[in-house]
Amino acid sequence: MSRVIAIANQKGGVGKTTTAINLSACLAEKGKKVLTIDIDPQGNASSGLGISKDDMESTVYELMIGEVTLEECMKKGVVENLYVLPSNVNLAGAEIELIGVEDKEYILKKQIEEVRDYFDFIIIDCPPSLNILTINAMTTANSVIVPIQCEYYALEGLTQLIHTINLVQSRLNADLEIEGVVFTMYDARTNLSLQVVENVKENLKQNIYKSIIPRSVRLAEAPSHGLPITLYDKKSTGAEAYRMLADEVIEREDNM
């Protein structure tokens, strides 16, 4: 069965969607079959993987309220071996639509059960909030990757996220674990980035990836072209950093 990894941090602007897009692309580039689930109403992971908003008649929203099948919702991504369950702003209404629905925390899990044997990795891009969408991602996932921006308030909100993961473990998904923390937007020219990395390593008992994602103009530009960094600028430092992260994720999977 595939390994399902949620990319989560309720703090916005930490490189969560960038990590979901480019980790998915790098895993696919290495020959793994990957499904990326965009469960964020902003839909940025969808557009960043080449899914046009004009092609989004069937999205995760319609899937979760039972209007379409998973096959009707799934789209081919811009990278070989990569498929996407896209999202758009309609998903913002899911919380209200699902009031009173039995087992609403497990809707996504039930929907993807039928395809888990087909993929090696399923990557879920979560919204920057702790709502029913994030809970669905965590009940579906085996583990969570937490992107942390190399800035002064890096640890802000992380305690709450870990608390939420612990609650999901105890009540909804006993097998959920923290896959690891990945540092993003690292600027080697500043002492602050180095201090943040050292501070997190000292205070966090979780697994911390060796791969550190640099602050990069090319990484920031790529989504506006509907491309992951591996296609937009395959030799950039950002592309190499995400390839290294993909290697670490694969290595951990192989060692389990």
UniProtKB/TrEMBL annotation:
Residues 3-178 form the AAA domain. It catalyses: ATP + H2O = ADP + phosphate + H(+). CDD domains: ParAB_family. InterPro entries: AAA_dom, DNA_Partitioning_ATPase, P-loop_NTPase. Pfam families: AAA_31. Coiled coil: none annotated. It comes from the Bacteria. Dimerizes in the presence of ATP but not ADP; ATP-binding is required for double-stranded (ds)DNA-binding. Interacts with DnaA. Belongs to the ParA family. This is Sporulation initiation inhibitor protein Soj. The lineage of its organism: Bacteria, Bacillati, Bacillota, Clostridia, Lachnospirales.
